[in-house]
Amino acid sequence: MNDLKKLGDIKLSRVTFRASSSKQSDTVTQKDSTGYLTPRAVPSLKPPSGDGAQKTTDGRHSASSFSLKGLLAAQRLTRELKNRAALRRKSRGRMQHSNPITIIREQVHVNSANPACKFPNGQVKELISEFLATKLKNVSYNPSICSILTKDLCEDIKRLVRRVTPPRYKLICSMAIGSKDQEDITVTSQCLWDSYSDNVTTCNYENRTMFCVALVYAVYFE
Questions:
Q1: Coil, helix or strand for 4?
Q2: What start-end ranges are recorded for coiled-coil regions in this protein (predicted)?
């Protein structure tokens, strides 16, 4: 009976853990029914060492580096998108605040003629330049033939320009040919005409021995 009473009086033991200052192992004290504390060795948990620890640290470093690169790339992309949006807003604001374009038609004088199609000055100049370069490329200066040469070239130029000239225009061609060995000369012309409907085309050409200046007047008549 006494033994049974003793077994019935046994209480559950309570286990407490205490941190030990020793680096090799930790001890666990156990309190039994008698009230005495008995030390008990508990294996200490140490972090992995060697290659495993190095791999773990390398993985953490690589993950942190990848996350930093991604963050920087996202910041750059956000900055570029903001700059583009700001430029678009500025361009839209300029277009909205810009003054409307007013088309001013050329004023025609009361006494001026008003042709339906005006003389094509630029096209005529290109035709004359190509014509003189073809005709005078291999020609040397000779005073005895200059008078005949100028007449023939003027007639050819008038026929060439007539193909692109609108109707009701009269053409007048003038030409001067000189030697490059002598002193230079200046060719000028002056006339009274309608500045709105009439026009003039000037073209120059030079080779090794001579120069040529051609003028074509286009006078409109009603």
A1: helix
A2: none
Distance CA 196, CA 190 (A): 16
Largest Cα span, the chain: 164
Residue 48's pLDDT is 52
Checking if the pLDDT of 26 tops 50, the result is no
**Contact between residue 26 and residue 20 where contact means Cβ atoms under 8 Å apart:** yes
Residue 221: predicted pLDDT? 87
Q: Is residue 158 exposed (0-12), middle (13-18) or buried (19+ Cβ within 10 Å)?
A: middle
Q: Which residues lie closer than 8 Å to 200 by C-beta, 6 or more apart?
A: 121, 189, 215, 216, 217, 218
Q: In what side-by-side order are the strands of the sheet with 199-206?
A: 169-179, 210-220, 199-206
Tokens representing residue 139 in the block: 């020609």
Best CA proximity match to 201, nearest among 112, 115, 96, 129:
129
Under DSSP, the state recorded for 164 is: T
The predicted-structure confidence for 103-128, as pLDDT tens digits, reads as follows: 666 666 767 788 889 999 999 999 99
Look at residues 161, 162, 172 and name the one whose alpha carbon lies nearest to residue 216: 172
